[in-house]
Q: What sequence folds into this?
């Protein structure tokens, strides 16, 4: 049985959690989601087990754009996919500096097999 993988980046379904004083622009949020999403892979073990799901990851971005840390805020139902979701922002390393200063953004990451 041949499985084709499809990544569905929740680019437009982003939820932003900014510092109370500053709100980040929608364009910046989309750009950050695209950069992080470009680092997504579908772990082979998850594919073989038929695991799918959506994880939500909170990414902390410093004033200079460096990704400081990431934490899982909603699991996908697969520990393998959850580990991948947390690793993605680290692989991105940095994003454009947030216009309103240091912030956190919640990025949904979806894996679906076809």
A:
């Amino acid at each position: 049985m041949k499985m084709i993988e499809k990544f569905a980046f929740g680019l437009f379904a982003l939820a932003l959690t900014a510092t109370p004083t500053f709100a980040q622009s929608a364009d910046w949020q989309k750009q950050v989601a695209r950069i992080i999403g470009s680092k997504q892979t579908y772990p082979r073990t998850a594919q073989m087990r038929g695991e799918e799901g959506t994880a939500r990851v909170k990414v902390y971005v410093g004033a200079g754009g460096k990704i400081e840390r990431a934490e899982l805020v909603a699991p996908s139902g697969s520990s393998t996919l959850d580990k991948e979701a947390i690793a993605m922002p680290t692989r991105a390393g940095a994003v454009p500096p947030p216009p309103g200063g240091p912030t956190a953004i919640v990025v949904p990451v979806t894996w679906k097999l076809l």
